[in-house]
Amino acid sequence: xxxxxxxxxxxxxxxxKTNILNLTYxxxxxxxxxxxxxxxxxxxxxxxxxxxxxxxEELIVSxxxxxxxxxxxxxQDISEIYQLREILEGNAFRMIFETGKYEEYxxxxxxxxxxxxxxxxxxxxxxxxxxxxxxxxxxxxxxxxINRIYENNLSELIxxxxxxxxxGMAIQKTNENLKKxxxxxxxxxxxxxxxxxxxxxxxxxxxxxxxxxxx
Length: 215
Prior knowledge:
3-stranded antiparallel sheet, mainly alpha, elongated
């Protein structure tokens, strides 16, 4: 495979992946090589390679008819991801205070919140920034395995987060609450800061995403 065909496959991969992550191709949507090739104005070869890459990442799955679909998001996926977040982030957040790094982390998290505020009108960009904010929290562990768990679940988190927003998790309000959270962190006010994180990101996110999966 020459350099040129490789880069076309990469381009196809990037475009299809972005469309899956920003819900242009929503969970459960059937895809075909032909249609994707037409949409991307490419031949079927690079598209086929891109599909294989996305199947390896489990963003595209085959159903029993051997047709391919965008991986769905089930209630169980949502519950599992939020449980994972709650366990890892809840503990990480406490650690930030226990190790006396609350001020340093207040600035690190604020940088991501600023990005979230800047992206308030672009749901996909906002969700990517939000996910980076969560990665910042778990970075306190300095644990490459935990980071990998987050990275492996990133695609699901980004897709799910958009579901939450479409169902009543208000971006402006979340941004405002995160700004407040940052200020509480800076003052070493763990209880107040954690209450905001929990309310916005463990409770609302979860119930909003679950609501969407029913509809």
